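Mods, move this if it's the wrong board.
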Amino acid sequence: MTSNESDLPEGSSDESSSDDDFDSELAEMLEMVDGEMVTGELVDADSESAPVAVEHDIDSLVAERDEMRSTAQRLQADFENFKKRSARETAAAGESAVARFIEQLLPVLDAFERAVEAVSGADETVRRGVELAFGEFTSTLARNGVLRIEALGQPFDPDLHEAVAHEETGEHEAPVVVEELRAGYRINSKVIRATMVRVAQ
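Not the wrong board. Structure tokens:
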């Protein structure tokens, strides 16, 4: 043994080893503390963000509900408009079909009316039979909305009357129907055929 080695105090190597162990344990403890702090921060951060996420989800659901409700209301309104439009179109188509049919019957009605005038001096039985048939025919048309347009003595109306003759009399400020040359008819408010007239002013 040298003199230097003999000068070292006993137990110095043990003390150095103990210091190293202490430093290692301290480092491990510090790492554990740091880890717990980081984990705690993450947990706290998640805890704070959770209510925000839930509130965002609720807002999204409310917006989606409102959009679906708006779409449903819009579809309902479109369907109601479609039903009304279909009903109007169906009614208009039916009225037009009836008007065309009645228009084809008007020559028969004109012939009937001339027949009534022609039998005015005939046998009572014949005259009465023709008048009854003509009356029944016009009554049936009236029950279905087909009416004769009143013209004689009425102010001239280009929507209802067709003027084929005009005379100046100075008796009227505005044109007035003074003679009915051919009867006109309408179905409800729709004119099937205007009345052919002579007007005076």
